[in-house]
Amino acid sequence: MFGISDYGAFVVAVILFLMIPGPGNLALITSTGKGGVRAGMAACFGCMAADQVLMWLAVAGVAAVLAAYPAAFHAVQWIGAVYLGWIGYKLLTAKPGDKPAIHIEPRHYFKQGFFITLMNPKAIVFYMAFFPLFVDPATHRGLPTFAVMAATVALLTLVYCTCVVLVTKALAERLRANPALVKWLEKTAGMFLIGFGLKLALTK
Questions:
Q1: Phi, psi dihedrals of residue 95, rounded to the nearest 5°
Q2: Rounded to the nearest 5 degrees, what angle is found at the Cα of 122, between the Cα atoms of 167 and 101?
Q3: Is the alpha carbon torsion for 157, 39, 165, 79 positive or negative?
Q4: Are 27 and 103 in contact (CB under 8 A)?
């Protein structure tokens, strides 16, 4: 179908990819918890934009460049590690009355969702290595094939992120009644982000 070796398997792979816990999901949950549905959807569109960037970079042959020059890939790893670690540190060290580590304005959520996804090792591995496996060399149609794959990823990401945002919003309304629990969740989120950053930095 459209030069894709197994479209059904491709769809399932993308869904599983989206469901795996990682910085992108954490960004959606944190954004929605702090800024509501509007902020959560802004982060969602940021994640979607970054997905498209990674996908088209893979199409352009960046995967081959990174394979030929490991130092370039390690540079990306370290940039991502520092970025995630910094956000996690801000969440861990935040005190009552402090300016939030993640800004409430939707434009900030979009930017954060974009960069967290762009530097997410899970996304890099998927689009730079796994994604090309679904292209059928015998029936590949060039740009139309990649366009269909890009549109599929965008649609599935939108549906998934919207579900996450709505579920998180419903839970957030209950959590507001318990400030101590909210603070604990914020610290936990910070620890996970630092963990993601360390994992990225130590990946070889």
A1: -120, 160
A2: 55
A3: positive
A4: no
**Distance (Å, whole) CA 181 – CA 2:** 49
CA atoms of 49 and 54, how far apart (whole Å): 9
Question: For residue 96, what are its two tokens?
Answer: 């009552």
Measured distance CA(22)–CA(108) in Å, rounded: 20
pTM for this structure?
0.66
Per the structure block, which two tokens stand in for 201? 């930095």
Residue of 154, 130, 110, 149 whose CA lies nearest to 4: 149
Q: Which 8-state DSSP code applies to residue 134?
A: G
Instruction: Say which amino acid occupies 116.
Output: I
Question: For 93, what's the count of Cα atoms within 13 Å in the CB-facing half-sphere?
Answer: 7
Task: Considering only residues 67 and 87, tell me which one the structure prediction assigns the higher pLDDT.
Answer: 87
Which residue from 191, 177, 163 is spatially nearest to 28, judged by alpha carbons? 163
Q: Mean pLDDT over residues 137-158, rounded?
A: 82
Contact 22, 51 (CB under 8 A): no
